[in-house]
Amino acid sequence: MQQIRASVADEFEAVNRLIVEQLHSDVDMVENVGHYIVDAGGKRLRPLLALLCGAALGGCTERHIAFAAIIEFIHTATLLHDDVVDISTLRRGRPTANAEFGNAPSVLVGDFLYTRAFQLMVTLEDMDILRHMADTTNTIAEGEVLQLVRAGNPDTTEADYLEVITRKTAILFAAACYGAAALSGQPEQERQRLADYGLNLGIAFQMIDDVLDYEGDPATMGKNVGDDLTEGKVTLPLIHVMENGTQEERTLVREAIASKSAGRLADVVAAVQRCGSCDFTREQARRYHDQALGCLQGIPSGPAREALLAITALSIQRDH
């Protein structure tokens, strides 16, 4: 990641400074919770995409830096809310904000970050971006509700799964790229091409996340293996077992999903491995990876384009 950030290192640091500056509040709890989750780090992949797209299309401006901070605030707000809904206890190698401070502060500080993002957005004075980001955050919220409604439902299809991950994850990747292109003065066709790049990248990224939930190393990932099963999330590896496993394996997975229990996690992981379900999911992720690469054709050569290619490769070649 350090090499990928190199072409926009100064801008990336400027984003980090702006995030810290914009976390300021007269309410101590807001700053405490906000800093707790932001200081935990993470890849900052979404704001990095905004910076790299801006750099590839002529150079990053102060508006790109502000937009990248906006993207990170929205993402962080969704993490705070997700961890409360999912009753998660570990993220990025340490207790989640809700485990550390409680559910109510996490939800309310998540609201603060959402509204701070839109305050920053107004300073861009660009109605097209404001409209696009309003639609994006609304879609993310719908995706979260869809995931909640479908949790514990073993009849969830691959199409249902794709709808959820597109809405709740990939759409913000797409928005980061679209907004950067808009701020670079690109026509709608070019904006949409980069949005398609982000969307396909985001889908590939989420699919690998779902693989890692069954074969990842908790110490490396910074979160617990099997969390998806405990939350009743029906991800592609499980769907593949239910479509291709033995009757015993299908029943095992269906019952684990319906009961939202990781009590038989070891057996479920074994079934996923026997059915080649993680390999299947990786193959599907590569399809979206390849589509994302296709969207980068025509982007001017240079360090920023090379970094975008590296991020695309990283989406399917990572262990956390």
From TrEMBL:
InterPro entries: Isoprenoid_synthase_dom_sf, Polyprenyl_synt, Polyprenyl_synt_CS. It is an enzyme of class 2 (transferase). It comes from the Bacteria. Its cofactor is Mg(2+). Signal peptide: none annotated. The keyword Transferase applies. Keywords: Magnesium, Metal-binding, Transferase. It catalyses: 5 isopentenyl diphosphate + (2E,6E)-farnesyl diphosphate = all-trans-octaprenyl diphosphate + 5 diphosphate. One of its GO terms (biological process) is isoprenoid biosynthetic process. One of its GO terms (molecular function) is all-trans-octaprenyl-diphosphate synthase activity. Its EC number is 2.5.1.90. Belongs to the FPP/GGPP synthase family. Supplies octaprenyl diphosphate, the precursor for the side chain of the isoprenoid quinones ubiquinone and menaquinone. This is Octaprenyl diphosphate synthase. It comes from Parahaliea aestuarii. The lineage of its organism: Bacteria, Pseudomonadati, Pseudomonadota, Gammaproteobacteria, Cellvibrionales.
